[in-house]
């Protein structure tokens, strides 16, 4: 497994709910931002995926909320791919305040969709290896 990739995000006031907590849907946006940032870090652009006729899909997401986040907090959002045999992979993420407090854990099951066939590709690792300038960023 690769070392987790991390991106820092500042919690903005308009992302909070009426109690002043980060809105639950924004946790998913932060996780998605970190995943796309990791792809770019490893040398895979969205255009590269489209050129190959594939696109990433999320099949399942679990969020475990640990501590609240408020406007002005800064968080580090980690991201690591966990490969398994077959068509799907897991992405494990942590959202952690800069003081080290774990705010949330996000686990997603994903795959690569063949955009013509509308089916998951048999081995997504092949595509990641072929497209990445640094496959190690994805644990390959």
From TrEMBL:
Origin species: Streptomyces antnestii
Q: Which Pfam families match?
A: 4HBT_2 (PF13279)
Q: Can you name this protein?
A: Acyl-CoA thioesterase
Q: Which GO terms describe its molecular function?
A: fatty acyl-CoA hydrolase activity
Q: Which SUPFAM superfamilies match?
A: Thioesterase/thiol ester dehydrase-isomerase (SSF54637)
């Amino acid at each position: 497994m690769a070392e987790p990739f991390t991106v820092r995000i500042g919690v903005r006031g308009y992302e909070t709910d009426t109690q002043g907590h980060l809105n639950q849907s924004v946790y998913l946006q932060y996780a998605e931002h970190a995943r796309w940032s990791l792809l770019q870090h490893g040398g895979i652009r969205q255009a590269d995926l489209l050129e190959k006729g594939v696109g990433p899909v999320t099949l399942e997401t679990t969020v475990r909320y640990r501590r609240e986040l408020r406007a002005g907090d800064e968080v580090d959002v980690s991201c690591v791919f966990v490969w398994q045999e077959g068509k799907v992979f897991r992405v494990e993420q942590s959202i952690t305040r800069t003081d080290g407090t774990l705010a949330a854990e996000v686990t997603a099951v994903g795959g690569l969709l063949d955009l013509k066939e509308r089916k998951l590709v048999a081995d997504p690792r092949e595509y990641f290896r072929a497209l990445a300038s640094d496959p190690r960023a994805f644990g390959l």
